[in-house]
Queue: 4 jobs
Job 1
Amino acid sequence: MKSAYGDHVKVAMDGHVAVVTLDRGPHNFVSVDFMRDLADASQAIDENPEARAVVLQSEGKSFSAGADFSSSTDSVASGMGGINDLYVQAVRLYSVAKPIVAAVQGAAVGAGLGLALVADFRIASPEARFAANFVKLGFHAGFGISLALPRLIGEQRAALMLLTGRRVKPEDGLPWGLVDEIVPAAELRAAALKLAQEIAEAAPLAVIETRKTLRADLAQAIKARTDIEHTKQAALRATEDFQEGVRSVAERRPGNFKGR
């Protein structure tokens, strides 16, 4: 198994745990190539019998701040074709067989929240923030979030996040199941590794089959949901509200939306 996939995804083994580090700081904005490299690394981990669990961590200020809609050159932010390609990679990530523990520091926003939801568990530092801020952009949720989030925290709490776009602190997300443990930033990676090692101590075939039962047909459901999300995003991207949303978020002010 390689130690690097592309320029921003690194893999190291710690016993039976594969530690995957995203290194596109400071905010680890998603891109099609970035997520393809992550999916390639995840597939290689699945094929490695020595790897029994995964830690997903990132360098920089944010776990992942999602798509960079302020960029005119980013393929995800600049066009729906790039978003569709991104969702192909999202389905690949949801198809991973081995358990994933995410170490979340800073923002997990938009598609970055979607990436955190791919994991089975989320260990967070007090500085972490979770947000599905799509409506503040005049946009529809993507990356399968409209399915994965209510599945994890319940319909009502997911509706609160999706319809307000508010940022959720770890202490609020803990009783919801959005966060599994809160630890100081200096202990974040060690705590994620500890949980992954606990999983890796169990019988690996039993773990994989149990996880498969728990997740059932989740990857296929994510594929169907991202198809719907993509259609709705394409329609909303053509609105004046979307243009205003991108401006207002970049300028850190409330959007002046007109409903058109």
Note: The chain has eleven helices and nine strands.
Job 2
Amino acid sequence: STAVGKHLAALAGLHMKRVTMELGGHAPAIVFADADLDNAAKILSANKFRNAGQVCVSPTRFLVHESVYEPFVDKFVAAAKSLKVGNGLDKDTRMGPLANPRRVDAMEGLVSDAVQRGAKVKAGGKRIGNEGFFFEPTVLTDVPRDSRIMNEEPFGPLAPITSFRSYDEVVAEANRLPYGLAAYAYTTSTKTMQAIGADIESGMVSINHHGLALPEVPFGGIKDSGYGSEGGLEAIEGYLNTKFVTQASA
């Protein structure tokens, strides 16, 4: 978490120890008006509910252009409802449990808070059974910005979806939080791809696919999501000391 990471970084600083910090995130997933909705809903839902949403780069805030909001929601909800939740040893299972009972309580609290503030539950929203720590793949719509889930990393199978009107509006929302680990965007416009890649404040931006965490590419965040890299050639920098030696003739 960011809180623990800052504490460890402070302790390392006392001894001038170099560290790489990959901390919390709250990844925006932007769907523009010209996006391939089938592709966007398929990839984003698969990655949202991977490991029951307990992934640092899990897409978290779904920001969808108002002109395609309803059809995207329909496709995403259908994907969420199609997932079989259960024992990972069952070949038909597509999503397993949360890590511990604290995560179940956290999911219930986030859903309750969002609903009290006006959000609508389109899929899921509840714990499954009384054994284990299973929670339904959950989709929330019309989620207000001041709800906890729009500000706190959920680290679970909750997908809050809101709409936007303009490019500037969605960039402002994407950059609003102090996190900057991962971000996603879907568009068929090369111009928009280039612009959003530059304007989003994030250590990693993946456009029209989920191309993160490959061993040959840098993996890391900025702002409160940390610093340094765990992948690519950049990962070695944290283990190197630059030494300058200058010499003149005797």
Note: Helices lie at 2-14, 37-48, 69-81, 101-116, 167-174, 190-199.
Job 3
Amino acid sequence: MSETFLNGDVRLIHGDSINVMPALGRVACVMSDPPYEAHMHAAKREKKAFGAQRRIRLDGHANPPPVNFASIDGVREIITQPLIEKCDGWFIMFCTPEGVAPWRDAIEAGRAKYKRACIWVKPDSAPQFNGQGPAMGAECFVTAWCGSGFSSWNGGGRRNVFTHLTNASDRHGEHPTEKPISLMLELVDLFTQPGDVILDPFMGSGSTGVAAVRLGRRFIGIEKDPRFYEIACERIADAVSRPDMFVTSRPREPKPISLFAGIEAAE
């Protein structure tokens, strides 16, 4: 395991989240994009006839690499319980439509309050090129409340539909399931408060961390793939170094949660 600390507000960990989590302190929010469910992994690896790769990006840029990590199905229940136990607020996980029910079951088994599945609509998603059925034009994420009392957020009575381009101009492009910065900015703004600590146990290329930094939140990210960890460190470090990109100012008196919790125990 190796770690990178940025500006006292960001802790990035190269390791397996299942092994790392016991050494972490409490957080205000868990927000992550874990690996796809198994059926989507199979679809992402499919090739067209004669070996040609399916067209995923429609903006002229190269396709992202194929999915090369294991499905969430084997570890969903293992990871959910300890995440819920460390969270004092919202638990948010991206998934396919077929993954909503398994996530709901795991959340309820962990005694968190499952709230609702939300929809991310992708106006620029690729069509179904073979014409054999409808294309996937949206993605889901489940929301649950891990805190005490009634759940609270900054969205009032707004609906659970979020519309953002998947191939926006600021897309990095190397991670096959990268989330748009604009989407993550909206979710961080709605589900957390300035100074909150957000934990992302499947950090990928770091979009959630970039959004957290720009909105004055603190961030803990865990990623076990060395290349994606390197990319996340670069992207989040760039965000930290550009205060002109911050959407809100940092709070003067952040909540007393240490990002260094458990380092001694883990060594």
Note: The longest strand covers residues 87-95.
Job 4
Amino acid sequence: MHFKIEQYERWQKAGFRNRCIIAGANGLINLSIPVEGGRHSNRLIREVRIDNSHRWQMLHWRSVVSAYNRSPWFEYYKDEMASFYHTKYDWLWDWNLVLLQWTIKKLGVEVKIDFTESWQKDYLPGAYLDMRHQVLPKNFTSFAGDCPVYQQVFEDRLGFVPNLSIIDLLFCEGPNAVNLLRQ
């Protein structure tokens, strides 16, 4: 697999660049990283600073533990995952890359990652699968047909929720996660 990550796009509010969605006992939990300038930041994605005046890491980690401490693979991944929430990150770009690299390693897949050299509004048809503006917090469940089905922690209460954060799949399926994604 070969991914090219957009590094010259402008910050977009209401996207997944600073958030993920997990399932908790009482419903979906939107974990959002506060950024300096908030919704009105007009910086390149590489230049977005995390607003560490908030205790977001502690709150996010508590939510992750609460949601997944009963999942089959939480014990296996929790120490490494906790380290992300106990290390201060100044840049959203760095946080996202570290988590992406960790996820690829845990999935055990060979992935080549490159970064765009400049901004392009559109790519030639067929050149790339451009997902920059496709999956958003407001429509993430509408892509259910592409999502593998697996047993989730709170499925008995919420039903199966497609397209949650990759940590949901990892904590619930462990090393089998990659096989489900390949299907």
Note: The chain has a mean pLDDT of 88.
